[in-house]
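question for whoever is on the cluster today: can someone run the full assembly for these? two chains, 573 residues total. i dont have access anymore since they changed the login thing
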Amino acid sequence: MTKKKINAGIMLIFLILSVIVLFPILCLVIGALKPSSEIIRSGLNARIDLDIMGFFNFKSLFTSGTEYFIWFKNSFLLTIVQTLLSLFVSASVAYGFAMYEFKMKKLWFSCMLLIMMIPMEIIMLPLYKEMITFQLIDRFTGVLLPFIAAPIPIFFFYQFLKGISTAFLDAARVDGCTEIGIFVKIILPLMAPAFASMGIYQGMISWNNFLWPLIVLKSNSKMTLPIGLSTLMTPYGNNYDILLAGSVMAIIPVLILFLAFQKYFIAGMTAGGVKG
Amino acid sequence: MVKRIKQFGYSKKAAPYLFILPFMLSFLIFFLYPVISIVQMSFQSVLPGMVEYIGMENYKNLLNPTFFKAVKNSLAYTLITLAILIPVPMILACMINSRKMVGKTFFKSALFVPTLTSVVVAGIIFRLLFAESDGALMNQIIGVFGKSPVKWLRNGTTGFMVLIFLAFWRWVGINLLYFLSGLQSIPEEIYESADLDGVNTWQKFRYITVPMLRPITTYVLTISIYGGLAMFTESYMLWAGNSSPNDMGLTIVGYLYRAGWEQNNMGFGSSIGVFLLIVTLAFNAVQMYISNKKERA
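^ ran it for u. tokens below:
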């Protein structure tokens, strides 16, 4: 076999794979443009029939007074707040681990590695009981508080900070800078590239988070977008117009961000790989 | 007092505790305490306003067909996704790594797109692609081959296939990128000197690529075990809720959710949690043992 033939074969494999991967999303978009009765009858497919297709589902999404945009707003706010908070807190923790020696540092560090291995789902029952005790049920604080000090960002920032030379920090100390001042004024700005990657990683996790918000949030007006969408999925299919148009609208902001910041997305989502 | 605070600000001894304090609190309140309390609750009957020690009763109740089904589903899902989603992306990554190919960037981005959709949206799409009518995409496709429509999500085997396909769809791109980032850290010279020695492609893959990729493989393995054992949302979305016909899509976490929230039986739910904790630790221990042994060899 010549090299050219191998190349063509590999290209063919990737072409087929890309079609398999993108086709379902295309079907979703086509489906969102069809009346819901058509979806109930035949599910999703790629058949384009201009006689029945139109933007009516999107129109009713905007005009029929559904709670969709409240869910959207909730998800948006939660994602922003959780991402900013957890990045700041994780950076502080990572800085403490990376730059100082202190008693039982190894033990605390192993605790962090342990959390990384154990799915949160295991302890969600007692966590839920704690949220009842703290009166955080049906509140956004309850959704994010337990996960602010997130192990993966901590670990990623730790690796990042380990790669920075610390010699110039002593110069800052001599100049009379406090330890917190060093962190806020010197280290945080240095961490900007790491923040970009982890911001995307953490943002994606919050935006798509499902099980824990499903447990904590009870009222319709508090729901996040994934939970709200899942409530529209009934066996009767009476909400399919909103469900499909809403699903498309849920992907669009992420897709736009991805196209604009592709490099950071790929770096952020594969960030964990650096740890090997 | 002000002087004290000032001194504290300059103290290199106190500073680290201040920086990692949020983690310490979070670990104690939102991890260690829940772990202790789930073990404790698993020996109790926890009803509103009444907690009673009942010994091993919850664990004895675990021995029922529904629980075995949930365990079987979770384990099968984990093992099958491991068997597909590690070798396939690894080989795909090797195929495009050092190759000058038209559309390489496009392929990388295209395969990444499913990672951007939430499991919820992915579940909605797949539920409707695999709908029962002959007009749904998958039934159209098999119709081309002359097969009659299949009720995909009502049959245990095909239902499970849909679950696996959904996992493949969501993860193949990101795992490929993990392996690509690993491949980029292997120095080109190793392959060049192997070429001089007349080593063939398979040997290069087996004796250079696979061992050099071990750190990345270990990482992908760890997150795949985690994701597989904790799987819940995929099944919840495909079957529009936590109950599927014959519990064909029930997972360990789904059973925990059923016991804890749908049936309000927190003690019994806790025993499921403890079981999952042990399984997770066992998987990780085996994986660490194997990768340590390989490293020494």
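summary bc i know u wont read the tokens: The CA atoms of residues 84 and 205 of chain A lie 13 Å apart. The longest helix of chain A spans residues 68-99.
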